[in-house]
């Protein structure tokens, strides 16, 4: 029960007491009115009673009235006692009610205190709940941000995985390309080794041709020197070539020509040695191919041309020897000079051909070295580019 309800109970008790007094007054008024209505001769007021007593007319009435008054007094006393009892009861009831009301108020206060404590506790719990909700919201936001970060990391990992897969494919492709380049480099290396072998064979062939040419040039110089010494000896011995000389002079001149004609077997030896050189060069050409084969073929061709030239020169020398033997002594000196000139021309031809062969060898060697350098450089650049690409991919 609340304090307002206790105030209502107190108000009810006061209103009951007032209502009882008003009822008593109304009863008295009602009784007076009824007396006048049913007993008009009966004195009601104090003046009427005094007059009636003075005249003696109202003795009975007075006695009756006294009895009535006594009865009324008794009734009033009873009513007063009853009212006192009722008041006592009401007082007791009010006291008990007040006691109960105070108890109820204490209970209400206790309940209100408990309610306040509960409210405070609820407020505290509400604040804690709100705090927990805020913490949960923060945790939720943190979890969502972490989920976003994780999803982002997942996407990045997937992208990196795709990149790694693509890099793996590219690496496999680069490996195949590098393997192919290695095979090409190996084949180029083998080709270079073969070309080096061919170059070595070509150098050997050229050195053989050069040695042969120098040897033949040396022999030609020796022959020219021998002719010069023979001419010097002829002039020293006073041998002169005269067209109209005697047979002794002709025979003497023939003997001198026979000495000079010893050059022809030496030329035949040169042709024989040149043919041997051609045979060796042909054997060497069977083991090579490409530019070296062409170079050796050109050397063989030039030596064969030189052999043809020497054979023609030998045939011409034989014919000239026969003609000179049959000719006059005056023509002997001219034949010797022509022989010297032919020998000199032969030496110059051998030298020129040897020099041309050496120049061609140097040119072919330079071309071959340039081609080998370019091929090696290209292979090295391809390998370097492949390695740089792989390095950049691994770094990225």
Automatic annotation (TrEMBL):
Listed name of the protein: Uncharacterized protein
Organism whose genome encodes this protein: Salix viminalis
UniProt keyword list: Coiled coil
Region entry Disordered, spans: 1-26
Sections of the chain in a coiled coil: 108-237
